[in-house]
Write a structure and sequence with these properties.
It is built from 17 helices and ten strands. The chain is α/β, with parallel strands linked by helices and about 350 residues long. The two termini are about 35 Å apart.
């Protein structure tokens, strides 16, 4: 599908401005965090997210409920399914695997998407319907009726690597996995050596959900032994496992935390870094400020060292300084920007002047 691409940050903004009576369809690969992002967003607004895996439903009864005879009227009615909100509170229906559903199930979705009605019962006012579909030759898919697609606002959801790293730090993904992905972002969603559009069948390839499982194993196992390497390969494939094990052994580019806590100690190392390595450090600094609530001496160290770091970049690594300034204005790290604007006014002015000087 040739649709507009949006990142996680843009998706959240899109949800803010889209009326509840307009349906949204997210096109994207599996394992990129669609359900997790939606659940976190709507839970923060006090709304329950109900995931319905349409590809697993064998007939419409799995969606609309079981027929039952009303002894009073003598008519057949459908018992409400387990998920239907009988308390009158609006919900978010997340219709996952929409284009894996059987045609007869999709017919039921037509009325739901258009009229917010299911077997004669209307969803509570304010309820939302969001669907997710997979796109690509590697999936076994059902062609969607254009009339059904027309009931949705359709976007292709492509979270950035930086957004995944930010999420990974928030939820405590193992630092070894985070370091590997920030230094080798091409491995986040696929094997970079694979041919585009190749059907992998049962061959394991990397995805975002898989890297979280790798993290869980590393946290349990500690050191990377041969059996741990095989366990990682079972999740993301042998090539990715070999790459991450090699990266851990060769470690590492400095983290944002290390630079913010002791810039002078790491300055000789930073002087030897190329642009791509300093770009990784830049992202790490912004992620650290975005996730951590700094206080006391850690806060004072960060204020002093971030100013010294940008001064170093602007004098000796001008392209990296431009990258740092771009991170400040692009909107991915709002808490980090707020910290700098509030606590580092001299740095903020220096970045503004630097950006003006290169335009």
């Amino acid at each position: 599908m040739a649709n507009i691409n949006i990142t996680t940050t843009e998706l959240l903004s899109l949800l803010d401005i889209t009326p509840a009576d307009q349906n949204l369809m997210l096109v994207g690969n599996h394992g990129i965090g669609k359900s997790e992002i939606l659940t976190e967003y709507f839970s923060g607004k006090g709304m329950k997210v109900v995931p319905l895996f349409l590809g697993q439903m064998s007939d419409p009864g799995d969606l609309i409920g079981i027929p039952n005879r009303n002894d009073t009227t003598g008519k057949t009615e459908f018992m409400p399914p387990y998920w239907f909100p009988l308390d009158g509170k609006p919900v978010v229906l997340f219709l996952d695997e929409l284009n894996r559903a059987r045609p007869e199930v999709l017919q039921t979705i037509m009325d739901l998407a258009l009229n917010r009605t299911l077997a004669g019962r209307k969803l509570p006012d304010g309820s939302r319907i969001i669907s997710a579909v997979n796109a690509g030759d590697q999936y076994q898919l059902t062609d969607l009726d254009p009339a059904l697609v027309s009931r949705f606002n359709v976007v292709t959801f492509r979270p950035t690597v930086q957004e995944w790293l930010l999420w990974a730090e928030k939820v405590g993904v193992d630092a070894r996995v985070r370091d590997f992905i920030r230094e080798n972002p091409m491995w986040l969603d696929k094997n970079p050596d694979a041919k585009e559009g190749a059907d992998t069948g049962l061959d394991k390839t990397p995805d975002r959900r898989g890297w979280k499982r790798v993290s869980d194993i590393l946290k349990t196992a500690g050191d990377i032994s041969p059996i741990v390497t095989k366990a990682i390969a079972a999740i993301v494939g042998p090539k990715a496992a070999s790459a991450v094990v090699g990266s851990v052994s060769a470690r590492k580019i400095l983290s944002g935390r290390e630079v913010l806590q002791n810039f002078e100690k790491h300055l000789p190392t930073l002087k030897g870094y190329e642009l791509h390595q300093l770009s990784v450090v830049n992202d790490g600094i912004f992620r650290h400020l975005e996730v951590e609530n700094l206080s006391g001496q850690a806060k004072e160290n960060a204020k002093k060292n971030i100013d010294a770091y940008f001064t170093f970049l602007s004098k000796e690594k001008k392209e990296a300084a431009a990258h740092f300034a771009n991170l400040y204005v692009q909107g991915t790290y709002p808490k980090a920007v707020s910290f700098m604007a509030r606590e580092c006014q001299v740095l903020t002015m220096a970045m503004v002047m630097y950006v003006k000087s290169i335009r």
